[in-house]
Design a protein that fits this description.
This protein is of the alpha+beta class. It is built from four helices and twelve strands. The strands form four sheets. A four-stranded antiparallel sheet has the order 2-3-7-12, covered by helices on one side. A three-stranded mixed sheet has the order 1-4-6, with no helix packed on it. It is globular and about 50 Å long. About 20% of the residues are buried.
C-alpha cells in the first residue's frame, strides 16, 4: 500500500515539470519575435512588408527594372538649325536693278572748248540693297527712231553687282563722222530687259550735260562696266 501511495505522488511532480518547460519555450519564442527586425519596422511606422524591396524599381546595382526598360525613351531637345534661303541673310538672292534703285547722270568727256562728242553715263545705286545690272543702257538721243546701237565687243561677259552707293559706267559716242547730224536737246535712258527676265521699264529722262549737242547715225553705246576706263576707252578711240 505504501508503494502505491509513492507512485501517485510522482505524477503531479512530472506534470509541473512539463508545464515549466512549455512556459520556457513560449518565452523564448516571444523573445525571438521581438528582435531587431520587428523593432525597426515599428520605428519606421510601418510593417516589414511596407518597405520597398531591392527589386521594386531597380536591381541590386541600380539598373532599371524590366518594367522601366520597356517604357519609351524621352525625346531630347533638337539642336539642329534649319537651312534655306532667305533669310536671310542667308543668303538671299540678289535681284535685278530697277529704275527705283538707280540714279542716272551724263557727263561731257571731251576737252574744254571742244564740241560734245563723247559722254560718260553713270548709274548709281541709291537704294539700300545690292542689285545686279546687266547688259547695256538703252539711250535715246533726242528724236532718234530708237536707242543708240550697242558696241557688242564691249560685252564684259558677267553681271555687275552694285552695292548701295556703287556705280556702273557706260560710254556714249554721239557722232561717228557721218554727214547727216541733228541737234539733241533731250535724252532718255532705260535698262531694257536683258535676258527677258522682266518686262522692260519705261525710259526715264537723262539730264543733259549741255543745252544741246549734235548726233548722227554713227552713235554707239557700250555695255555697263565697273570702271570709268573700261567704259570710255572703246568710244574715245573711235
Amino acid at each position: 500500500m505504501n508503494a502505491a501511495v509513492r507512485k501517485n505522488h510522482r505524477g503531479p511532480a512530472r506534470r509541473r515539470s512539463y508545464a515549466l518547460g512549455a512556459v520556457a519555450v513560449a518565452a523564448l519564442m516571444a523573445t525571438t519575435a521581438c528582435g531587431p527586425g520587428s523593432g525597426d519596422a515599428a520605428a519606421d511606422g510601418g510593417k516589414p512588408s511596407d518597405r520597398p524591396s531591392a527589386t521594386d524599381s531597380t536591381g541590386p546595382t541600380g539598373s532599371p527594372s524590366p518594367s522601366d526598360a520597356s517604357a519609351p525613351p524621352k525625346a531630347s531637345p533638337s539642336t539642329g538649325k534649319s537651312g534655306g534661303n532667305g533669310g536671310g541673310d542667308g543668303g538671299s538672292e540678289t535681284g535685278l536693278c530697277t529704275h527705283q534703285d538707280l540714279s542716272f547722270s551724263a557727263t561731257k568727256y571731251d576737252a574744254k572748248g571742244e564740241p560734245v562728242r563723247h559722254l560718260m553715263l553713270v548709274a548709281t545705286n541709291t537704294s539700300g540693297r545690292k542689285c545686279d545690272l546687266q547688259g547695256a543702257p538703252e539711250v535715246t538721243l533726242g528724236n532718234a527712231k530708237g536707242p543708240a546701237p550697242v558696241k557688242r565687243e564691249t560685252d564684259p561677259g558677267e553681271v555687275l553687282t552694285l552695292a548701295p552707293g556703287g556705280r556702273a559706267y557706260a560710254g556714249l559716242l554721239a557722232t561717228g563722222g557721218h554727214m547727216d547730224t541733228y541737234d539733241v536737246t533731250y535724252m532718255k535712258i532705260g535698262l531694257g530687259s536683258p535676258g527677258g527676265e522682266a518686262e522692260p521699264e519705261k525710259p526715264v529722262a537723262l539730264p543733259m550735260p549741255v543745252r544741246s549737242f549734235p548726233a548722227d547715225d554713227g552713235q554707239r553705246v557700250t555695255y555697263w562696266a565697273g570702271t570709268e576706263g573700261l567704259a570710255m576707252r572703246p568710244v574715245t578711240r573711235s
